[in-house]
Amino acid sequence: METRFARAAREIPLSQIQRDLVIGSLLGDAYLMPTTAGWCLRVSHGLDQAAYVDWKFRIVAGYVRTAPRQSGRSYYFRTITHPELSGMRQAFYAARRRKGVPIDLMDHELTAFGLAVWFMDDGASDRRQVRINTQGFSLAENQRLIGFLQAKFGIEATINRDKDRQRLRIRDTSIGRFVDLVGPHIIPSMLYKLPP
User: Fold this and answer.
1) pTM for this predicted structure
2) In angstroms, rounded to a whole number, what is the distance separating the alpha carbons of residues 79 and 32?
3) What element of type H or E holds 17?
């Protein structure tokens, strides 16, 4: 049964920073869950990233009925169903069951803040290498992401093999620019992901 909270929240458009958070999260670990009324966003990370989940929750709290909670070894929350999430479902899943790369949506809306969210979800640095774990996307999608990062943010990236899959590696010459863009948005508990 739908609550008064959900009905009221569904009428409130997402702000730009909220949309950016959702887009960055969907590029990373979040996903859209079906409900009887449409789609809701589920954010879930390991217990060691509880501060990160709480930070995301604070940004979209007006669309969440229940505060984050633990389930096994994960810590999560989910939003109410919202019409803008249905639109994002169409963009990210485009008549497929597997999440894809909505370059048009990213080109129009993704900012350095959303890029930082994506990096906090799926990024890593190791010996001055910076990678974004995009193994869930196809080779063609990873190549489109390389073109997107170059065109929108001036960041050069390459394909980095990871067993039988591929992920993005930021070129050494672009690491400084990448850190300049995302660094101001990285929360304290996730600073370990940035290169030394």
Assistant:
1) 0.94
2) 10
3) helix 16-27
Report strand pairing: 129-132 vs 157-162: unpaired
* pLDDT category of residue 94 using cuts at 50, 70 and 90: confident
Other C-beta atoms lying within 10 Å of the C-beta of residue 194? 18
- Cβ-contact 177, 154 below 8 angstroms: yes
Predicted confidence (pLDDT) per residue in 45-63, tens digit: 999 999 999 999 999 999 9
Alpha carbon distance, N-terminus to C-terminus of the chain: 50
| Domains of the chain with CATH codes | 1-98 (3.10.28.10), 111-196 (3.10.28.10)
Helix 112-122 and helix 16-27, axial crossing angle in degrees, nearest 10 = 30
pLDDT per residue as tens digits for the range 96-112 = 778 899 999 999 999 99
Token pair in block for residue 146: 């390389």
CB atoms within 10 A of CB 96: 8
21-23-26-27 Cα dihedral, nearest 10 degrees: -110
Q: CA 176, CA 167: separation in Å to the nearest integer?
A: 20
Structure tokens at 31: 């996903």
Give helix then strand counts, H and E, for the chain. 8, 8
